[in-house]
């Protein structure tokens, strides 16, 4: 048997000296020099007005979801909330470009994308409320658990997409990560695996300017984050992350490309984190108000509203209707979040292993005894009153 | 595991000498043949058959998609395995060496170990992570770590390590069949150890989590696992001349830990020595000694002693014999078990 006949040697090519030569022309992989835009450009004429109106309704709802969730932290109903205010165009577009059978891999800042995909907002928020790490069945919704460790969800998306392709299923995985996450080793490994395996994955980097306090200039010396794609042999796309129509278009094209079996795409959406990292952070320590104000003038909701009203597709009444719908969503969320979650301490031991170990059985019995003693104590306290 | 047990049931099979490496390879092959969702992935596992040749022939028999040469990136390998398991596959990951598994730590600790728990039982990850571990093969730096203490300190993982050819097959089959993630530690220096073995009818193996008494005895119990089992067996034979009849317990599984078998043995003998290669400080022996003391205090004639690797980074190969616990060190520990109090 020659080496060429060995199993798994299909990708092997004997290499004569002097050196390995790249077989890929990098030019088609390069991102545009400027972030791609649709709103306010000629390209908008090609966009279905229905889609624009849908995006608008979702963006208004998404903005209201963000302000409501932040308010819930102040009322002690959420332990913490990393807001995606200002980034709603990315969140909404990421959810809307996927088919039901596809998978979404969100980071901790992407509860809005999960909600826009159809997940119950209370289930999406249990992690941040602090009663359950994951409030939903990932397989039922095809939404991976919200991922707190940076970029570690990216190789999961690659593995899942790869597995789906091996099974012959038409499934695309869209994985979300921030600008800071692109510095992580898992970002590199995931993109490399995805390209080598031609996995049907779309990587959406929301470049919101900051990794907590650290600005992008301290994060990377790359020409753009989208340029990183070229090193892996996949196309990089640079898009205005506050232009919902542009993000939707670029992500749709990347999803379609993945579906055609042409492999992964890296999309950098340039946006801005309008709020602090979380409610526990103080953004005035590391950035100037004038920058925030400049981005306020480039607000994703307003950009879209301006386009729609300017073209006569949306009037004040329509805007009001979208706001009212969002308000109803917020009121319902507020009401439900104002109820104390039911806690089941004994469940702490239920899902560590398929079968409880003898050690966990002993520890569960000890906790049971503590809980019983607490209850007895409360009973006797009530009786003595 | 049940499969192995059923196959062994009542059958007289022809045995011939086989190595642990061969038994491990056979376990992978049989698992893949039986369950099409079992996928092997790792560095050099395909065309080459792995640097230890454990996966030899798998790519040829099952194709590249079932036994996959991955890019050289351990976090990526394990992270991809997580995604594959999320989609219903049963990945078996090969880490090339103990110390090369460390880049995958975050995936292992934050995702593999926790996914069942963090999804309320909705999404368990049936992933087996095979890690060749331990010293004694003359490996240069970063090729001989005993990394078991890191893994056993992480709830959500099973940590399994065979010491015999039979167990290598049975425990690996059981690990792959397990719906929980298993870190499967393969003692490198026992890869080429031989035993009479029949691949057609492997011996019955109990489920993961059961220790076994390898040598019954009355004087004291040696508690060990993986690469140190042969050392303890040899020490027990040598101890006969000293008048000690030593019992040897092979843990086989560090997590779950078989308190029952260990405590029953120590209650019988009244004395215990834990033996492993891993550094003693913060190592498995401390946990095991504490568990014995908590359960067997009134049966103990002497403090539980540990014979472990020194608390040093793994030494250069020409010095490793000074580091690894050997027969003499085990016998010295046995001699310190306060025998004079008996008289």
TrEMBL record, chain A:
Oxidoreductase keyword on record: yes
InterPro entries: Alpha-ketoacid_DH_E1_comp, DH_E1, PdhA/BkdA, THDP-binding
Residues of the signal peptide: none
Domain Dehydrogenase E1 component: 69-332
Keyword Ligase: no
Region (Disordered): 1-27
Keywords assigned: Oxidoreductase, Pyruvate, Thiamine pyrophosphate
BP GO terms, sorted: branched-chain amino acid catabolic process
Cofactor entry: thiamine diphosphate
Protein name as it appears in the record: Pyruvate dehydrogenase (Acetyl-transferring) E1 component subunit alpha
UniProtKB/TrEMBL annotation, chain B:
Keywords: Oxidoreductase
InterPro entries, per database record: THDP-binding, Transketo_C/PFOR_II, Transketolase-like_Pyr-bd, Transketolase_C
EC number assigned by the record: 1.2.4.4
Cofactor(s) essential for the protein: thiamine diphosphate
Enzyme class: oxidoreductase
Organism of this sequence: Streptomyces microflavus (Streptomyces lipmanii)
Gene Ontology molecular function terms on file: branched-chain 2-oxo acid dehydrogenase activity; magnesium ion binding
UniProt-listed SMART domains: Transket_pyr
Name the UniProt record assigns to this protein: 3-methyl-2-oxobutanoate dehydrogenase (2-methylpropanoyl-transferring)
Ranges where the Transketolase-like pyrimidine-binding domain occurs: 18-193
Domain of life (superkingdom): Bacteria
Gene Ontology biological-process entries: branched-chain amino acid catabolic process; response to nutrient
């Amino acid at each position: 048997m020659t080496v060429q006949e060995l199993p798994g040697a299909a990708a092997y090519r004997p290499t004569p000296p002097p050196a390995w030569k790249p077989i890929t022309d990098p030019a088609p992989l390069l991102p545009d020099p400027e972030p791609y835009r649709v709103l306010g450009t000629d390209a908008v004429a090609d966009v279905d007005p229905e889609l624009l109106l849908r995006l608008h309704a979702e963006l208004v709802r998404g903005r209201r979801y963000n302000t409501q969730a932040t308010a819930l932290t102040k009322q002690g109903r959420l332990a913490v909330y990393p807001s995606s205010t200002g980034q709603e165009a990315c969140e909404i577009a990421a959810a809307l470009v996927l088919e039901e059978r596809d998978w979404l891999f969100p980071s901790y800042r992407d509860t809005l994308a999960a909600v826009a995909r159809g997940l119950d907002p209370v289930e999406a928020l249990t992690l941040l409320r602090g009663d359950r790490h994951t409030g939903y069945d990932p397989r039922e919704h095809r939404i991976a658990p919200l991922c707190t460790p940076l970029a570690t969800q990216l190789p999961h998306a690659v593995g899942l997409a790869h597995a789906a392709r091996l099974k012959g299923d038409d499934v695309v995985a869209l994985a979300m990560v921030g600008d800071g996450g692109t510095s992580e080793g898992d970002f590199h490994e995931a993109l490399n695996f995805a390209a080598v395996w031609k996995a049907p994955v779309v990587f959406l980097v929301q470049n919101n300017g900051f990794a907590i306090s650290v600005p992008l200039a301290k994060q990377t010396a790359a020409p753009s984050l989208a340029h990183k794609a070229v090193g892996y042999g996949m196309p990089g796309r640079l898009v205005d992350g506050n232009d919902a129509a542009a993000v939707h278009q670029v992500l749709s094209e990347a999803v379609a490309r993945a579906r055609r079996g042409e492999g992964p795409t890296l999309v950098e959406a340039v946006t801005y984190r309008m709020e602090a990292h979380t409610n526990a952070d103080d953004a005035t320590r590391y950035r100037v108000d004038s920058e925030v104000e400049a981005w306020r003038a480039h607000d994703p909701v307003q950009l879209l509203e301006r386009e729609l009203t300017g073209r006569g597709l949306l009037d004040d009444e329509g805007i009001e209707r979208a706001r009212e719908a969002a308000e109803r969503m917020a009121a319902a969320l507020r009401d439900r979040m104002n109820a104390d979650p039911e806690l089941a301490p004994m469940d702490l031991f239920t899902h560590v292993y398929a079968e409880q170990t003898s050690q966990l059985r002993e520890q569960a019995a000890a906790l049971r005894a503590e809980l019983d003693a607490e209850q007895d104590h409360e009973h006797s306290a009530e009786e003595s009153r | 595991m049940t499969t192995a047990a059923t196959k062994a049931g009542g059958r007289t099979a022809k045995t011939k000498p086989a190595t642990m490496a061969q038994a491990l390879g056979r376990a992978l092959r049989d698992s893949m043949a039986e369950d099409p969702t079992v996928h092997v992935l790792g560095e050099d596992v395909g065309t080459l058959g792995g640097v230890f040749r454990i996966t030899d022939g798998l790519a040829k028999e099952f194709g590249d998609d079932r036994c996959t040469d991955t890019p050289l990136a351990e976090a990526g390998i394990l992270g991809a395995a997580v995604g594959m398991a999320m989609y219903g596959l049963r990945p078996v990951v090969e880490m090339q060496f103990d110390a090369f598994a460390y880049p995958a730590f975050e995936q292992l600790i934050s995702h593999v170990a926790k996914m069942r728990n963090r999804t309320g039982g909705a999404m368990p990850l049936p992933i087996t992570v095979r890690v060749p571990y331990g010293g004694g093969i003359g490996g240069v730096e970063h090729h001989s770590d005993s990394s078991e203490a890191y893994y056993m300190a992480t709830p959500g993982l099973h940590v399994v390590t065979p010491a015999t050819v039979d167990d290598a097959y049975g425990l690996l089959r059981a690990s792959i069949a397990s719906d929980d993630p298993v870190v499967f530690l393969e003692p490198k220096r026992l890869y080429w150890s031989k035993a009479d073995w029949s691949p057609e009818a492997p011996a019955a193996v109990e489920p993961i989590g059961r220790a076994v008494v390898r040598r019954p005895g009355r004087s004291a119990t040696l508690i060990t696992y993986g690469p140190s089992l042969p050392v303890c067996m040899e020490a027990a034979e040598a101890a006969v001349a000293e008048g000690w009849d030593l019992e040897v317990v092979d843990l086989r599984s560090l997590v779950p830990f078989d308190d029952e078998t260990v405590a029953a043995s120590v209650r019988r003998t009244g004395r215990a020595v834990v033996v492993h290669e891993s550094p003693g400080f913060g190592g498995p022996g401390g946990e095991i000694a504490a568990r014995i003391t908590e359960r067997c205090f009134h049966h103990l004639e002497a403090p539980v002693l540990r014979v472990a690797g020194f608390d040093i980074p793994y030494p250069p190969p020409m010095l490793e014999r000074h580091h690894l616990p050997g027969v003499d060190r085990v016998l010295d520990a046995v001699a310190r078990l306060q025998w004079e109090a008996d008289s």
